[in-house]
Structures are given as C-alpha cells and as structure tokens.
Here is the input.
Amino acid sequence: MKRKGLLVLLAVGMVVSLVVFAACGEKPEPAPGDTWQYPDRLLVTAMGSTSPTYGAFVAWTTPWAQDTGVTVRLITESDSRLQQIWVRDGTFFSVAPHQNRSMMYGIKGYARRDWGAWQSRIWMPAGVSFWGACVLKNSGMKTLDDLKPGMKAITISLSEEPQQSLYAFLAWANVDPSTITFIPLSNTGQTGAFLQSGKGDFCLGYVTTASWYEVEASPSGLTWLSFDPAQNPAAAARFLGMYPWTDFGKATAGVPSSEGVPMAMSLPPYITSANMDTELVYRIVKWVDENYDRFKDSHPWCVAMTLENLIKTAEHNYEPIHDGAVKYLEEKGLWTPELEAKRQYNIEQLTLWVDGYQDAITLADERGLTINENNADWQKFWDDYKRDNNLPLLSYDQSADNQPGYFDYYTNWENIRPKF
Here is the structure.
C-alpha cells in the first residue's frame, strides 16, 4: 500500500474510533504571576474500548477535564507501534499500558526507518495489572505446570509483549517454545472467542478485560492457571528470567474466576515523550495526587495511581521518570539522589539505543540496504550492529557493581532468551 493511502486509512481509523470527553468547566484563571496555560485539548490513546486502560483513562480524565476546562480526546488503536509514534512525536500526551522493548530493540515488525528506540518517559503508573494464563474450565488444567509440548498458544501478532508473556509461562513449565504452535491474532478482543472455539489451548489474559466476563458466563467456563512462586521457586526464577518486569500476587480485582488465584502482577506505566511540556506533566501529576479520592474507585486500575507506586516504578522500571513527575516528587520531598542516579543511568542507556539505531540506518544506507521491517538483510544488519556494538539489554539482575538501573550488558546477544 502506498504511503498516501496508509495515511488516509489511519486518518479514517482515528475519526471512527474517536471518543470525546468534553470539558464541563472553564479553564481556571492562572494565579498572579503565572503565565502558563493549559492546552485547549489533550489527546490520549488506549488499545481498545474493552481494554482496562480505556476505562481507567475515562475515570481520571473526566474530572480532570471538568477542573481544567481541557477537552480530552481518547482514541483507540490496536497497533501499539502507531500509538508509540503518536506519543513520541508529541501529537498525543499519553498511552497505556505501554511496553517499549519491542520498539527499542527494533525487532522484526518494528525495524522501520521512522521507528526504533525513542526517548519515552513515565509519568504515573496506569494500574495494578494481574495477568496469567487462561484456559477453558473443562480443560483439566489447574497450574502452569500443566502446560505441555504440542499445545497451541493464542498470541497477539502486533506486539512482542503478549508472546514474551507466553514464553514466561512456558519457562515456568520448562517447555521449549519450539514445541508449541502459536496462533497469531490482531487484537486481544479475539482471544476469548478463539479459546472457546478450541483453536487454542491457552492464552494470555488480563483479569480486568471485559471479554473474559463473557467467556466465564458461557457454557465452556473459564479457569486461570495458578502459579505460586512459594510453591516452586525454581520455576519462578525461570519465569522472571524471561519476563523480569513483574512480580507475583493473588488477583484481587477482575473477573470472578481469577479472584485469589496466584498469578503475575505488574505496574504498567502511563508514558509520554521526554519532550512533553514539563509544566503540563507536573500539573497533571499534581492533580492526580491531590484528587485521588475523586476517581480511585471509578475503575479497578485507578487505585494504583499513587505517588508510592510512582516511586516503585522509578525503582524498578527501565524507562526513566519524566522531568515533570520528578519536579512534583521533589516538591513533596520524595525524590532522592539515588533515584535520580538510577534515572540518569537509564536515560544514558536508552540514549545508546536511540543513537545506535540512527547510526545503523546511516551505515545501512551507505551499503544500499532497504530499511524495511520485512527486509531480512536489513534485520540481520541491525542484529549484527546491536551485538557488535554491545548495546545494553534489559536484565532482571541488579546485583552487578555500579548498576543502578534495569539495563545490563550481555556478552552474548542470545542471552536475551533463556535456554531450555
């Protein structure tokens, strides 16, 4: 498809998926001496109307719009790559949930000239996300240990995130991914129907996704496979070796079949561009903190939007905290030199990827390579560049000397995947 045609389709998609939350109030008068003003509108994006963050966005932006007089537009888009580009370029304020690893690594499907690593920043946790492996109730499976070679796993084709989560399930069960058939889908809304049809044996599920209520209420029923690290520490270590950006806990919110089941627990972040107006980010973070009680019960994810969880995110996430959020944490006396050192370290490591990708493109152009996500020669050139230039991979191991952040260097690029 020609680029012009693609742009037209994107524009149409944006129009038909547009949801507008009109501001009910007028913009507040600035304080004496304060010349800064809110923008007329704020664009944010979520994966779809059935995704947890769609409802969470509505929950907090509705009162925020009433207080500030800003019109909020929430646009749904199933392609996470486009969402990142919108935020990277400053057209959109924020997206959630967000995983930047696929774009940063420039894996197949992301290795386009205008994509690759970019300077993303976290401004607030989006929610507490419980997630695990879903199976039909009559499957006979109870725990992740019941996963076996030869099974079919339902995955999402446009993002590394779901498939890497599935790899973590397989790592727990000590099952080689090459023995599993992966069934690719284009969006999460299809997974329940495919599971019910028998086309897949298991899939990744988030307990607050609306479609799982339908599956649970159907004759097939729904079961979440239990995985408790206290019962199997070795399996938990394999899981974290594949998917280090998470913790374990018992689900406390979501579809009833998940309640109390030991599974994975994450703090997916809201992200924005490093170039987003520092004052705007500061004032939104400040409003969220000061108005928490007004929206925290409006959606299960909103309860996680606290400064305490923002600090946890700063301690454990590889993406840096935005300057505006840091400004508010400093104002509250919560930002420490240790947190700033970790943030600066991760900014430096992320910058290596941003600069490295552009350098690789320049070198590839000199060799006459076509920069295209489907060009195997370009993908090999980029993979070799990453290895030869020792670009830092994300690691769960924070025990190395002088390593304050989530980035770590591997001598072997293949160590990004565990050996089975």
Observations:
- The first strand starts at residue 18 and ends at 21.
